[in-house]
């Protein structure tokens, strides 16, 4: 078995979006693009002719977008979509049921497409179905976005049992699988790829595990950055939906407003979150490079969207609002002083909303 890891800038960009973004639309688009990039890598690494006749077994929900991108490079690819169900004490057994029945006669090379490989048990189930369906066993490429290094020996043993010449084409190799069966480091937010790509948070990856993940980060020395993310999102959420101040009279959700509101909260709670405040008396505002970078990251990860008229302002996306209310708030509320800050924001929402950044500044520095 040979393992190839993609090294093209486009593949790296796509997998970064898949790991970090919470937008199902953007993750789906990146998945199609990454599928195409991995197909091009296969052409180069394995030496396949794109217009050849090939067959693939694809895990229906998770692999659909990758398969779409793959077919852009291999237009004659015959795809069998299958549904999988894991069962058993440690979910080590996999039931595979075909959803489509394409003709595989004349197919001389095969693929298995499944974005995420943790323990490798689903891959084994897909391979069993691949062999039973009459696909070619001389050569096969298993195509994945992320593979756990710890599962490589099992993957090799599984492929060597059926396939004479096997390859694995991946975008990234990650370290190992945790006690809950998730890749480490894996996806940054929403650990299950299918839940992330289809917006079905909680269907396969329980939200309590995501809350615990955020809570564990908040409890570490470096958890301050995670707290700033959650607090900034909650401020924007309250300004967007939690205030009784009419829209025409409330402050615009600019970076200056977020900064001065956060500085106001720090001043009145004795909980310093940001270490690099800069005071701009002539502009009546505080600024922070740390906060600016946090907001840029939140925009890149699709928690917030940026609007440019009349100047740059921020609004929570649908996914950002959901993550803030269902993950960040419970995690922050159960983490000591951060819970005090969220309670204070809830109580002071109308006050913060009706004051422009320069008005907040004067209340911080009368």
Keywords:
Rossmann fold, 8-stranded mixed β-sheet, two-stranded antiparallel sheet, alpha/beta
Give the secondary structure arrangement, pairings included:
Blueprint (H helix, E strand, L loop, with lengths): L1 E4 L3 H12 L3 H23 L8 E5 H14 L4 E10 L5 E6 L11 E4 L2 E2 L3 H12 L6 E10 L3 H11 L2 E10 L1 E2 L5 E2 L8 H6 L8 H12 L4 H19 L13 H15 L8 E3 L4 E3 L1 H12 L3 E4 L5 E4 L1 H16 L3 H18 L2 H8 L2
Parallel strand pairs: 1-8, 2-3, 2-5, 5-7, 6-7, 7-8
Antiparallel strand pairs: 3-4, 9-10, 11-12, 13-14
Helix pairs in contact: 1-2, 2-3, 4-5, 7-8, 7-11, 8-10, 8-11, 8-12, 9-12, 9-13, 11-12
What amount of the residues lies in strands? 15-25%
Structural shape: elongated
Q: According to CATH, what is the topology of the largest domain?
A: Rossmann fold
Kindly state the mean pLDDT as a whole number? 93
CATH architectural name of the largest domain: 3-Layer(aba) Sandwich
Radius of gyration from CA coordinates:
24 Å
Largest sheet: 8 strands, mixed
Report the structural category: alpha/beta
Question: What is the CATH domain class of the largest domain?
Answer: Alpha Beta
Give a count of the beta strands, DSSP E runs of length 2 or more: 14
How many distinct folded domains? 2
Number of helices: 13
Name the quaternary structure.
single chain
Distance between the first and last residues' Cα: 70 Å
Helical fraction:
40-55%
